[in-house]
Amino acid sequence: MSASAQRITALDFARALAIFGMIIVNYKLAMEADNGGAAWLIAVAGLFEGRAAALFVILAGIGVSLMTSKAYLSRNKDLIRQNRSSLLKRAGFLLLAGAGLLLMGWNADILHYYALFLLVASTLITLSDKKILLLFVGLLVTSQFFLIVFDYSLGWDSRFHVYTDFWTLAGFSRNLLLNGFHPFFPWFCFFLIGMWIGRKRWLGTENRAKLLIYALLGTVFFETVSFLLIKWSYPFLDLESASYLFTTKPMPPTMLYILSATCLALAVIAISLYMVDICGNFLVVRMLMNTGQLSLTHYVGHIIIGLGFLELIHFLENGNLSFSIAYGCGYFIIAVLFSYVWRKWMKRGPIEWVMRRLS
Fold first, then answer.
1. 113: which residues sit within 8 A by CB, 6+ positions away?
2. Among 104, 31, 33, which Cα is nearest to 317's?
3. pLDDT tens digits, 147-202
4. Which residues contact 84 (CB under 8 A, 6 or more apart)?
5. Is the pLDDT of residue 122 over 80?
6. CA neighbor of 195 nearest in space, from 89, 140, 124, 93
7. d(Cα 105, Cα 112) in Å, to the nearest integer?
8. Which end of the chain is more exposed for a tag (fewer CB within 10 A), N or C?
9. What residues contact residue 21 under an 8 Å CB cut-off, 6+ apart?
10. What is the DSSP letter of 153?
C-alpha cells in the first residue's frame, strides 16, 4: 500500500472511531440518560462528549484539503472552479439532509453545520497556510469574546436539550452561528485546523511520532490549564462563572475546549496511522476502515434506524445510561458488519453514492 493510500485508509479508520463516539453521545442525549448508572459508565460516556464530533469535523477539513490540493498548488482556475462547485453542491446536499433530520425532531444534527463549513471552505481553497492559521486564531479569540458579551443560554430550555425558537429566523441564525450544538463560532476552528493539517507533512511516516507526542502533551496541558484556571479564579469569580469561561466541556465551547479537543483528535489520528500501518491486514481493522468509508450513511442511519426503532417501541426516552451505551455499542457492531458486506459489492455507501452523483 502506498503512503498516500495508507493515510487515506487511516483517516477512514479514524472516521469510524468518530462515528462510534457520536453514536454513544447521541444515544445518551436522545434517551435523556444524563445521570444514573455506575460512575465509570458516566465517566466513559463523558469522554466522548464534544470529542467525537470534533474529530469528525477535523477529518472533514483534512478531506477537503486533500480533495483541493491540486487546485491549491497549481492555482488552475478551472480546477479551482470545479472544486468550489463540488463543495457547494455537497454543502447543499448536506443542508437538505440535515434539514430532513431536524424536521424529524433530531435537534442535535451536525449536517447543517457541516454544510455551512463546506460553504465557507469553498472560498478558502487558495488561502495560504499562514492565513488559515491566522483565521483559526482570529476565530478562536472572537468566539471566546462572544461567550463574554453574549447570553449563551438564549433560546435554550433549562436542560439545554430543546432550542425553543429554533424555527424562527433569529433563532436559527443564533443557533447556527453562536450557541447551537456545533455553532460556526468556534466549531469552524476544527475544520480550519483540519485543512491546515491536510496540507502539511504531519500525516507522513516521518512526523507521526511527533504528531502523537505533541498532541498528547497538548491535551494534558490544556486540560491542566483549565483545571487550574477554574481553581485559582475562585476568589475573583464564582465557580459557575469560572467553569463557564474555562471549561473544556463542549457547552459552552471555550477556547480551552477547542484547543484540548483539537489535540486529542490529532492524537487519535496519529494512533490511527499507526494502527493501519501495523495492523492494516487484520480483519477488524479493515472492517473499521470500511465503516469509516460509509460514515455519512451511518450518521443518518443511527438516527433514523437506531433511534427510530426505539421510538417505535416507545422506549426512546428511558433515561437508562447503561442501556444507551449498550444499545449504541450494539448498533455500531451491526454498522461495522453491514459496512464490511456492503463494501464487498459497492464502492461507496448508499448516501455517499447519492451525494457523489449529485456533486
1. 98, 176, 180, 181, 182, 183, 184, 187
2. 31
3. 999 999 999 998 888 899 999 999 999 999 999 999 999 999 999 999 999 998 78
4. 122, 123, 125
5. yes
6. 124
7. 14
8. N
9. 48, 51, 52, 53, 55
10. T
